[in-house]
Structure formats: C-alpha cells, structure tokens
Specification:
eight-stranded antiparallel beta sheet; cytoplasm; PH-domain like; 716 residues; disordered C terminus; alpha+beta
Length: 716
C-alpha cells in the first residue's frame, strides 16, 4: 500500500550555486522514507545539475523547522556527483547495477552514497520521457570517466565571488616561510633546512615546491634521482629525534642501475647517521602494513554493513553483527596502523632514534603514520588549526593523490583506496578515548570526511601541488582570464553558519594539563548495537552462548597472535614495546603531552556517528554520549553563571563555547548520533538487544544454530 501524498502544486526550483547548471529533471518522483519497511514517502521533483543530484519536495521551498546543524552547500536531499557510490535500478523487484548506456529504464532508482546515505526513488508515476532523461543523466554525470577541467570545482571558481573569510589560521605550507616557521616551532632548524631546489618543479612534479631535508644533503643529491632516495623531514620531537619519510626506488630495475641506487642510498644513510644526527631506524611501510588493495577490500566490505535499504536488512545483519564486522578486517587494519604509530613513537620518545618511513611514493601510508605520530606526540596537532595545518603539510602539499584515491574522475578503480578515511578513523579512536585532549569534536571529523566529496573546495581534488598550480594558472571560463581562485575546505563559514560551527568545537577541551587519573575514565558508549568486537563474555550463559564460539576464537586471536605481533614488531627485545605501552597507560594522562591509544581487544570501536547516523534502528533517543555531554554543559553553564557574578570581566573571556550549543538543552529528544540524526522516528522493531528479540521469535532454533563465523586467520 502506498501512502500517497498529493503531488505538489507549486513550482519548486533548485537553489543553484554560482556556475551550477540544471541538466535534467523529472516531476512526480516518489521518494521512499527509509525509517521503516512501509512504502511511505513524498512526491517531488528529481533534478540533476553539473554539481549535484537533488530531490525537491514542498518542504524544500520553506525555511521552517530548519535544523541548527545545517550545511549551506549540500542539503539533506542533495547528493554531490562525487558522493555517488553506486546506482541500482529495480526491474520487476530485481536490483541491477546501472552503468553506461541503458536499454531499459527501471521503475525504481536506488542511489548509494559515499557518506553512506541511501536514496530510494519510485519512477512509476513519472512520464516515460522524463524517466529516460533523468536516469541516463544521473548515470552519465556521476558514473562515467571525466576530465579534470570538467569538475564543478572549475565552474564554481570562475563564477563565484571572491569573498572568502580571511580569518583562517591554518598554515597552508605553500610558502617557504611556512616551512621555516614549522622548523622553528619544533626546534628542528639546527639539523634541517627548507630547500627551494624544486622551484619551477625542476626536480619532480610529485614533490612540493618547498620541503625540508637534513642540512648535510646537497642540491645535487636531490636532483640526481628526481627526489627519490632523499629523506624528507616531517617533524622533530622535543628531544631532537626526527620523523622522516622517503620515496623508494622502483624495484624492477636492471642490475647496474640497482647497484648505483644502492651506493647512493648507502652514502645518504651514512651522512645522516653521523653526529649531530641521532641513530637511524628505517621502516618499509609497504612490507610492515597492509597493502592499499587490502585496505580498499576491507573498507568495501565494511561499508556494506551500513548501506541499509530498509529495516528488514538492518535486523538481518544484526543477527550476525560480530561475525560480519570481524570478517571485514577493517577494525583490525585500524588496530595495526595504530600499533605501527605507537612503535614509531616509542623509537622517537624512548630510544631517541630518528625514524625513516619508506614507501613507493611516500604519499599514502607515510602520510597516515606521520600524521598519527604528530597527533599523538604534539598537542598543537590536537587543536583545530594545528590539525588542519597538519593535513595541509602531510597530505595536501605532501602530495597524497586525492583525485586517484577517491576516484573523483572515475578513471580507474585500481587506484582507489580510502587512505585519508583510514587516518580519520584512527584519529577518531583517539578523540573518543581522550576527549579533553582535542579542541575539535567527532562531528568535526565526520564533516571533514563528508567534505572529501564536495567539489567547490580544491583541498581534496588534486593529486599534487604541481597539478593544482598548473590548473590554477589556466584560463577561466569564457569571459575571465587569469588564475582561478579556489576555496579551501578550512574556511568552515562556507558550509556552516556560526551556530552550526559551534558543533565542531569541543567545549570540554582541557586548556591546561590535568594529570588526575580519574579523568581518564570515559563513559562507555551504550548502544543497541555493540560497536567493538568482544574480548571476553560478560556472563557465562546457562544455554549455549549465541556468540560463544566466536568469542573464544577472538580471545585466542587477540590475546595470542595479535599481541604477539604487536610485541615483536620492534627490533628491540620482545617486551620493550609492550613495557613502554603498559608503563604509559599506568600513569595519569597529560592531555597536553604524549597520548597513546588503547589498542587491545574491544578498545578499537566503530565510528558510530559517521557509519550509523542514517540508520534509525541504531539510534538511542535521549541517551548515548550526547546526553552525558548535555548534562555536563548544563553544569558548566551554571558554574559560569556564578563566575559572572563573582568576576564580570573574567567570565566574558571564557563563556563563548558553552552557550553556543543551545540545542543540547533539549537532550531528551535528541538521538545518540546527534547532530546528524536530529529527531527521527523510532524503529519499527523493539529497542531490545538482538539476542532478546530473536529469543522471543524463535527460541528453539536459536539455541540449536551456530552463529556463522568467517575465519580470516590465514590472511592476517
């Protein structure tokens, strides 16, 4: 039964950005609601532009009941073309992947998005000609390969007025002075120098214009192999030890070339191993971490758990949640990456050893590990401007291939890998384990991950600084000529007004170190769906345990092989790294000092806000971490009120952040995945743990049946 809401009488037109053109549209499209298994929904118009796919209903025309956390560029019914993951058509109740030219047009269209939203459109009541136009238009503009200059980024840059906010404090690292300032900040300028050898990109188009190398490295050495085999400086520790990275030589070389390159490397290593430099430890990340293909495969499996069409699908996956989660291997990859970062931290902090990260291009896993090490060791990288400057330094200017890794142009799926998302997942683990240590919130990280697919910012749409610079100097469209003016994602005022930006700032950020041990006890996130893999059973069951065999397997895996790997990953005696890890965790946390993530067993969790925010069944209304935050904010506000009475002047400097998130006061109605899932309806299933409702439905069958478990131990 279809609950028909009459098609809208009034004309609703899409809000177009500068440079945005309407390409095709279809009226009388029915959009299903995802909340339950019924066919409820709303009629509207489906449009496709050179920037986005958008569904417009009569609510789109009104500004009433707008959420406080609203994106000014991408609305809740907008999908940027780069955010489209896959498109399926439904023919006689069968789903078929849509690509290229279509012979037959579907009666339903399902769009899966990279931010894990799922849109379900019924085209049964739409005119046939309009169906052909809109379906072929959406498939063509979002799925077929395109040229770089065809990205909306260029249309917007040539048409938008240049009125960016000048108050952005992010260091962009596109000037020599930025590198010199960073050397001075980290006290690395005694042993390292910023070089201009690559001006005009005469060394390599893959390297940035300016970068930092050891003082003893000559210009001739940098020029010899286009920057390969040269240790490039990332960061200096307080004790003088430094983190370096190096682009490795290709492996498939003839003997004479290999010998020359080996001799060259030996010379470099000898030079940077002498005083005043510390001892050098090399780490080839391509052999000590999962490959990019493994990371892509794991994430592809993992995201399928959250691309939920309907309530039935959710509860079907919930029955085998632990097995499915474990079989993706995504949490295990996060664990391995964090362990590698801890290993590097231990070398820098305890052994006072320089660490040289080696990778084919030094622009993928090198970026992940160097960024994580700095977040863990440098409290400046845990401020908002510091973290943004870190992303600029290591990723944007450092030459991470965002265009290829995100497959923005749909050129080659072989190059695609969620490397930047992997970093954000790892940083989230730290943010949720040590909230007071970070000036930004998990909402900030979620919004940053969404911004990967918004092509009005240049930040995540080029492979290198050279590619960006050559694109900028091109002629603008038709009328104007001269350089493009691209926006940077770090100007948050483009996407959010001041009220919404308050959600990105952490009101609990510790402005001074708090060594009180009790501060470390963070509340555990209670949820219908457990977000980490189990380590031990909480209570022995009288019946055969639903997850018992699976848990036993995990205990063996986690306590045996995995921790064994962790301990032996260093060249030091086996217990050295574990001692360092345990010793740090036995002391009170200094939120402005070194931070080490907890990596054992269920400490590695699913980033609930990002992955579950569109699934009503996974939300806890009036509960979760947001309810705790609301109570603490109330107390803080009360304390500040008293402070105002005591000292008017002093309070004005401190009262900003707490009053800004006013919506938290109504926490009883908020979802645990706030601010994305604001006031959604409850699920049609009762809010009981899976085992409970399955017991009620089919107790005997449940007792007899084993939970399916996919054993990947051979691959790990």
């Amino acid at each position: 039964e279809i609950h028909i809401k009459e098609p809208i009488e009034k004309e609703v037109n899409p809000r177009l950005l500068p440079g945005e053109l309407l390409l095709c549209e279809a009226s009388t499209v029915y959009k299903y609601m995802q909340e339950d298994g019924s066919s409820r929904g709303t009629y509207g118009k489906l449009v496709c532009t050179n920037f986005k796919i958008s569904f417009l209903d009569d609510d789109s025309a009104s500004d009433d009941n707008e959420p406080e956390f609203k994106n000014k560029i991408v609305g809740e019914n907008d999908i940027t073309l780069q955010c489209v993951d896959q498109i399926y058509g439904v023919y006689d109740e069968k789903k078929k992947l849509l690509t290229g030219q279509l012979r037959k047009y579907p009666e339903r269209l399902i769009i899966y998005c990279k931010d894990l939203r799922v849109f379900n459109f019924c085209l049964r009541y739409t005119k046939e000609e309009e169906v052909k136009r809109i379906v072929s238009g959406i498939v063509h503009h979002s799925q077929t390969p395109k040229l770089l200059k065809r990205l909306f980024l260029f249309s917007y840059a040539s048409a938008a007025p240049d009125n960016t906010d000048g108050g952005n404090q992010t260091v962009m690292f596109d000037r020599l002075e930025d590198w010199r300032d960073e050397l001075e900040r980290t006290k690395g300028n005694v042993k390292y120098k910023a070089v201009t050898t690559n001006e005009g990109y005469r060394v390599s188009e893959k390297l940035p214009l300016y970068f930092v190398v050891p003082i003893c490295i000559s210009e001739e050495s940098i020029l010899k192999y286009e920057g390969r085999g040269i240790p490039v400086w990332c960061w200096s520790c307080h004790n003088g030890a430094a983190l370096l990275k190096m682009s490795a030589f290709p492996k498939d070389q003839d003997d004479s070339t290999s010998q020359m390159q080996k001799a060259f490397l030996d010379g470099i290593y000898k030079t940077i191993s002498k005083p005043p430099y510390e001892l050098l430890k090399m780490d080839d990340l391509s052999s000590s971490l999962p490959s990019l293909q493994d990371i892509q495969t794991a994430y592809t499996r993992f995201k399928q758990l959250f691309l939920i069409d309907n309530s039935t699908d959710f509860w079907a996956t919930d029955v085998k949640w632990f097995s499915l989660l474990e079989s993706t291997n995504w949490l295990e990859i996060i664990r391995r990456v964090l362990k590698k970062a801890i290993e590097v931290v231990e070398c820098l902090e305890r052994q006072h050893t320089n660490v040289l990260l080696i990778e084919d291009s030094a622009t993928d896993l090198c970026c992940v590990i160097s960024s994580l090490v700095q977040v863990m060791m440098d409290s400046y990288s845990r401020t908002k401007s510091g973290f943004q400057s870190l992303i600029q330094k290591e990723w944007v200017i450092g030459g991470h291939g965002f265009l290829d890794r995100c497959n923005h142009l749909h050129k080659s799926e072989k190059e695609e890998a969620p490397v930047f998302l992997l970093l954000l997942n790892c940083v989230w683990q730290l943010v949720q384990q040590y909230p007071p240590a970070f000036e930004f919130t998990e909402t900030y990280l979620t919004v940053l991950s969404d911004s990967l697919y918004v092509p009005i910012f240049s930040t995540f749409f080029f492979n290198s600084q050279h590619q960006r610079d050559t694109s900028m100097s091109g002629e603008s469209l038709k009328t104007q000529s001269g350089p493009f003016r691209f926006l940077t994602v770090w100007d948050w005022s483009v996407q959010f007004d001041l009220k919404a930006q308050a959600f990105l700032n952490n009101p609990f950020y510790a402005e001074k170190p708090k060594p009180d041990k009790s501060q470390r006890k963070t509340s555990r996130f209670k949820h219908q769906r457990q977000l980490s893999l189990p380590l031990t059973q909480a209570k022995p069951s009288t019946k055969r345990g639903f997850f018992r065999e699976e848990t036993d397997h995990l205990i063996k895996n986690i306590l045996g092989k995995r921790i064994g790997k962790f301990i032996n990953s260093s060249d030091e005696p086996p217990n050295s790294l574990r001692e360092f890890y345990d010793s740090w965790h036995s002391k009170p946390v200094d939120y402005h000092g070194l931070l080490l993530p907890r990596v054992d067993g269920p400490e590695i969790k699913v980033w609930a806000q990002r992955y579950l925010r569109w699934i009503p069944e996974a939300q806890l209304h009036g509960g979760g971490t947001i309810a705790t935050a609301a109570k603490i904010l109330d107390l803080m506000e009360e304390v500040q009120g008293l402070q105002v009475k005591m000292d008017e002047e002093h309070s004005q400097a401190r009262s900003g952040d707490v009053h800004s998130v006013t919506m938290l006061r109504n926490s009883a109605r908020l979802s645990s995945l706030f601010p994305f899932a604001l006031l959604q309806r409850q699920s049609v299933k009762p809010a009981l743990p899976t085992s409970t409702w399955k017991d009620l439905e089919d107790e005997d069958d449940l007792v007899k049946r084993d939970d399916e478990f996919v054993d990947l131990s051979g691959d790990m």
